[in-house]
Sequence to fold (652 residues):
Amino acid sequence: MATDTAAPRANGYVQPQVDVPALTALLDGRYAEVRDLVRTNLAKYADILDQAEQLSVHDFRERVREVVVEMAATGQTGMGFPEEYGGGGDIGASIAAFETLAFGDLSVLVKVGVQFGLFGGAILQLGTKEHHDAHLADLVSGRVMGCFAMTESGHGSNVQALGTVATYDAETQEFVITTTREDARKDYIGNAAEHAELAVVFAQLEVGGTSEGVHAFVVPIRRDGETCDGVRIEDDGLKMGLNGVDNGRIWFDHVRVPRTALLNRFADVTPEGVYESSIENPNRRFFTMLGTLVQGRVCVGGAGINAAKVALAIATRYAARRRQFEATSDTEEELLLDYGLHQRRLFPLIARTYALHFAQEVVASQLHDVFSGIADDEHTRRELEGRAAGTKALGTWHATRTIQECREACGGAGYLAVNRFAALKADSDIFTTFEGDNHVLLQLVAKGLLTDYASEFEDLDQLGMVRFVTNLAVETVIEKTSVHKLLERVRDLLPGGDDWDQEAGLLDPDYQLAMLRFREEHMLAGVARRLKRGIDQDMNPGEVFSRVQDHVVAAANAHVERLVLEAFVDKVRGVHDGDTKVALTLLCDLFALTTIEADRAWFMEHGRLTVQRSKAISREVNALCRKIRPIAVDLVDAWGVPPEMLRSPDLV
Fold:
């Protein structure tokens, strides 16, 4: 079936015959064995999908805990930890395992993320050997459960403003941890309500009357199942979804922990009460500390993308067997998947899922290289943080949109709990706001773009960014994104030069990339100009930034969509199997053109599309959908969602 020759592009169209195992192998990449281990474990615990609907909240929480501990024994949850503590020593493998776990019950996924990603990851990345020796083996095995107590009721995304305080007492060589006001309570903390014995608590460190900023501490919150002295815990109660995870609130009333409880990779306090850090600048220290926790964002983005795969696999397979109305003179009703509108609803989402899969592959690889020391300079870390933030935002928004569309595409059957959409919708909805609200994350992306990840990057709050861009960088940004140069770049890729009405060239990846680059760079230059104009008019920097926030987020979104397309194009260019290359090319073209089509108003406003060419793009999108129709089921099967996880007896 497969060949070694490059297949023709879609405009020299040859219908591919998809080799599903070969495509699965391509998608699974270097961690195919890891992903297969997780698939096997998911199938083993398929009954948890039923138990999520049948058990009480308490009993379901206990069941989820049991499953997580049993999975830990297989090694799948500890792959990112050092081998000497029972881990696998491979960060990339841990990302692959977590992403694949999203095919199953998402309470299990989040419980794993809290225990091994957040709690365990904080001790691994922020602690030193003393902390590793004390805690890693127990948490990797699941013998000790923990939680990650960063978020507070009053300061969700603004971690630097946390109200919990840890004051050093030099006489006893202890830190005294206190919740200073009601909105400083730790809230929404996974594992806190029932199971956690330890917490990594983020608090403002005060030494000798001086605040040294936010630091992390290992704090016991339960012993032998009982809440520790000075600790108060409440259950957050029922949530929209993920009720197998015991989220809770925590208050601290002068809780004392030893000096060694401070996770001291980047800063320490001597027994005498002297604060020491190898990073002198407090803002840079703070952002360096948070940067070590970027793995959580990468994991959540991948989980969202894989949740979308489950929804699309169900909806596509259903549409390939469900008939509705007579579309022709035949007496038999037409398959849903043969209707052009149904193809338009599902196939662009399949294409975008493939695109995001390959973009996620890039960011996961970057994470592995940075955390493994292969490429660990400061600029590379900043780029990783920006890419992780952007991919997480687009991936989780895509999951929310896709699950809803797929539910609707399955009609009344999609509304039945047994067919998985109820749980997928409820459990994945939080992905858009945990590990960072998506709008805030895109502002982080834009901040990096506007400052070009300058050395001052960590020192800049929003107001500082405005001043930096307007005083130092605006001319560089605008020059780099010269509209004249960009116009020429796009124009040169069009057959006939200024003849914008020709349909030829739409399937040229260089044209597609140039269009997205033009949009990104034009938007970025526009943001820089608006910031400078506001400052030149003596406006308050905070007001200036507030007025351009929508523009900032749009520019960041355009940047990330360009990165996603680049990842897809690069992947297709590296494929040599003929049929696989044709199939991926169709999907890549569909992703690129539907991305342009979705923002056609902007492209037309800025002279990049005529009415005729805009219509040509829509015609080409429809044609691509028709070409994808014969291989649609193969394309979703290639994701390798275990049949037990599809469940949906009425649909698949």
Remarks:
- Residues 1-12, 472-479, 495-502 have pLDDT under 50 and may be disordered.
